[in-house]
Amino acid sequence: MRNPIFSVYGLRNARHLCHWPMRNRVFNSGSVTSVPFRCLRPRSSTRDTDLYSLNKKISHLIRNDRICDARALFDSTNNRNTVTWNSMISGYVQRREIAKARKLFDELPKRDVVSWNLMISGYVSCGGSRYIEEARDLFNRMPGRDCVSWNTMISGYAKNGRMDEALRLFNCMPERNVISWNAMITGFLHNGDVLRAIEFFERMSERDAASLSALVSGLIQNGELDKAARVLTEFGNKDEARADLVHAYNTLIAGYGQKGRVEEARHFFDQIPFYLDRGKQGNGKFQRNVVSWNSMIMCYVKEGDIASARELFDLTTEKDTFSWNTMISGYVHLSNMEEASKLFGEMPNPDTLSWNTMISGFMEIGSLTLANDFFERMPQKNLVSWNSMIAGYEKNEDYKGAVKLFSQMLREGEKPDRHTLSSVLSVCTGLVDLHLGMQIHQLVAKTVTPDVPINNALITMYSRCGAINHARTIFDYFKLQKNVISWNAMIGGYASHGFSEEALEVFKLMTRLKVQPTYITFISVLNACAHAGLVEEGRKQFKSMYSEYGMEPQVEHYAAFVDIVGRHGQLEEAMALINTMPCKPDRAVWGALLGACRVHYNAELARVAAEALMRLEPESSAPYVLLYNMYADVGQWDDAAEVRMMMEKNNIIKQPAYSRLDSSHC
DNA sequence: GTAGGGTTAG
Q1: Which of A201, A285, A370, A509 is buried most, with the most CB atoms less than 10 Å from its CB?
Q2: Torsions phi, psi of A318, nearest 5?
Q3: pLDDT of residue A151
C-alpha cells in the first residue's frame, strides 16, 4: 500500500457496501416509491443511458467545485430523475448553500429517502440550534426513515451538545447499526463525557475500526492520552477491530506529538509492525502506512528535532507529498532555508502547500526577493499564498509592497479573508494611514464576522492613526470578544496620545473585571503616569507589578519609572534606581534620566546619562545635542564647547528630527 | 446522491 489514497478508497468502498443491504431492506419494505438503483448501471434504453451519464456529469462537476456549471446542466434538461435532483441538492449541501438546497427540495416532484436525508444532513452540517430544529422538523415529517436518517439526526444533536436528545433517538430507533453506536461515542466525547463513551464502546456487540478510532481520538481530544493508549492496547489486539487499526495508532502518535511526548509516540510507532505477511487473514492491513510515518516525522518536527525527523524520512520508502512538506516545514521553522531549498528541489511534485511553506520561510528570514520569486513562479496560487506574501511584507515593514500586493490580489479576483484583512490592518497601522484603514474596516464589516484578533487589529489601527475615539467605540462594542491584547491596545493607545486619565480609567476597569494584565499593560500604565506627572500613582503601580501580580519589572518598566520620578525632579532617586536595577539599563532608561536632567537643570547627572548613552550608541548625535543645549541653558559655555569638540572629534553628525529619547513605545 | 474515525502552511 504505497499510496494512502488507496486506503481511503478502500474504506469508502466498504462503506458503500454497507449501504446495500440497508437500502434493500427499506426498498423491500415498500416504504420508498422511487427506484434508487436504477441509474447505477446503464440500461439498454438510450433515455436511461442519457440519464445515467447526465447524473455522472453533474456529480463530476460538483466534485470539481463547479457547482454553477452543474446547475446549468441541471437546468438544461427536463429528463431528470430523483438521483439528478439529489445530486444537485447534495452539491448545495456540501457548499453549505442550504437555502438553494431547500428550494430544490421543495420543488422536487418525487422525493425518496435520500432526498430527505440529504436535506437533514444539510441542516445538521450548518450547525446551530435553529438549523437543528429545521432538520428535526423534516425528520418528523418524512414518510419512511432509514438508518441514515436516524444516524444523521443523532450526530446533529451530538454536534450541538444535546446528548439527551441524541440518546432519546438512539434508544427509540427501530434498528441500530455500528454507525449509530459510533456516532453516540463521538458525541459523548465531543461533549466531554468520557465515561459514557467508554461505557457505550464496551456495550457494543460489533465494533469496527472506526469505533476504536473514534474512541481513541476522542479520548485524546479530552486530554486522556494515557486512557487512549490503554484502550488501544487492550482492544487493538482483538480480531474484530484488527483491520485498519493503524488509523487509531496514528491518531495516538499524533496526540502524543501534540503534547510533546515524543518518546511515547515513538513507542507506539515501533509497535505498529513494519511488515506483516499479507497472506495472513485479518492482519493484512495492520502495518505502518504512510500516515504513520508522517505522524511520527511530524512529532519530531514539532519538537524541533530535525535530525530524528530526517532519519525517518530517509528511512521510509513510503513518502508522499505530505512527508516532503512536513520535512520542508521543519527546516523552515528552524530558518534553515538552505536545507529547505535543497529538499524542495529534490521533491517530485511540489504542491501549493510546498510553495507556500517556502515563501513563508523566506519571509521569516527577510528574503523578500526570494519569496517574491517563488510566489511568481508557483503554478497555482491560493489564498494562503497571497496571505503569506502580504503578511511577510508587513512583518518586514515593506508596507507599500504589501498594499501593492493586496490591490493586485483584489484585481485578480481573490477574496480576502480574516487573515488577509488583519495583515492589511497592520499595514495601515504601520503606514499611519487612517484613510486606508477605514476602507479596510468597511471591507472587514462586509466580509468577515469579527473575532478577537480582527477587533484588536482595528483598535490598534485606529488608535495609532490618531482616531482614538473610533478605537474606543470598537473596544466598547465588542464586550465579550476581547482578550488582554485588546485591553493593552486600548490602554496603550490612550497612553501614547497623552490621554493619561483615560488610560488609567481603562486599566482600573480591567483590574475590576479581573483580566490579568501583562508586562505590556504596565509599560502603558507607567507611561501614562509619567505623562500625567502622577508620581505616587506610578510608584504604586510599579510596586504592584511584583506584589500583586508576581511580575518582575523589566527594563522598559524601569525606564518608565525613571521617567516618572525624574520628571518630578527626584533625580537622585532616579539615579539610585538605575544603579540598583537588576537588568542592564538601556537607551530608554538613560534617555529618560537625561531628559529629566535637562528639564531640571542638573548638569552633573546629565553628563553621567549622556556618557552612558554615548557608550551604548556611539554614532548617535542625540546625547551630544541634549548635553550641549543643557550646558547652554545653564550658561556653562566651556562645557558646551567641550561637547561640541567631542562631537567633532568623534565624527558625530547632527541628525535632524531626533526628538524623543524616552520609552513611550506601546 | 445521504450517517461515524487519521497526518501539513497564512
Answers
A1: A201
A2: -90, 85
A3: 96
Residues 623-642 of A with CB under 7 A from strand B: none
pLDDT above 90 (res A410) = yes
User: Could you check: is the Cβ of residue A178 within 7 Å of any atom of nucleic acid strand B?
Assistant: yes
Strand B contacts (CB < 7 A) among A residues 478-507? none
Res A234: pLDDT: 85
Q: Is the CB of A36 under 7 A from strand B?
A: yes
Torsion angle, alpha carbons of A614, A617, A620, A621, to 10: -10
Q: Is the CB of A367 within 7 Å of strand B?
A: no
Statement: the CB of A388 is under 7 Å from strand B: yes
Q: Which amino acid is at A273?
A: P
Q: Which nucleotide is nearest to A388 (CA to C1')?
A: B10
Q: Does pLDDT of A15 surpass 90? A: no
Q: State whether the beta carbon of A387 lies below 7 angstroms from any atom of strand B.
A: yes
The 3-state secondary structure of A559-593, one letter per residue = HHHHHHHHHCCCHHHHHHHHHHCCCCCCHHHHHHH
Report pLDDT for A46: 64
- CA distances to A125, A181, A452 from A165, in Å: 17, 15, 33
Give me the percent of chain A exceeding a pLDDT of 70.
88
Percentage of residues in chain A having pLDDT higher than 90: 68
Q: Which nt has its C1' nearest the CA of A246?
A: B6
Residue A287 or A21, more confident? A287
Measured from the Cβ of residue A611, the count of other Cβ atoms closer than 10 Å reads: 14
> Quick one: which residue's CA is nearest to B7's C1'?
A295
Closest nucleotide over all strands to A302 (CA to C1') = B8
Q: What is the mean pLDDT of residues A139-164?
A: 94
**How far, in Å, is the CA of A189 from the C1' of nucleotide B1?**
30
pLDDT at A350 over 50: yes
Q: Which segments within A309-436 are labelled E, that is strand?
A: none
Q: Which nucleotide's C1' is closest to A183 (Cα)?
A: B4
pLDDT in tens, A417-462: 999 999 999 999 999 999 999 999 999 999 998 889 999 999 999 9
| Range list of β-strands (E), A328-377 | none
pTM score: 0.76
The answer for residues whose C-beta is within 8 angstroms of residue A105's C-beta and 6 or more apart is A89, A111, A115, A118, A119
Q: How many CB atoms lie within 10 A of CB A240?
A: 15
pLDDT higher than threshold 70 for residue A39: no
What domains does chain A contain, in order, with CATH numbers? 481-649 (1.25.40.10)
- For strand B, give the nucleotides within 7 A of a protein CB: 1-10
Cβ contact A503:A525 at 8 Å:
yes
Q: Is the CB of A353 under 7 A from strand B?
A: yes
CA of A51 to C1' of B2 (A): 20
For residue A613, the tally of other CB atoms under 10 A from its CB is 25
**Would the Cβ of A147 be found within 7 angstroms of any atom in strand B?**
yes
Residues 100-129 of A with CB under 7 A from strand B: 112-115, 117-118, 121
CA A288 to chain centre: 30
Nucleotide in closest CA–C1' contact with A295: B7
What is the rounded CA–CA span in Å between residue A296 and residue A171?
40
Question: DSSP labels for A215-249?
Answer: HHHHHHHTT-HHHHHHHHHHHTTSGGG-TTTHHHH
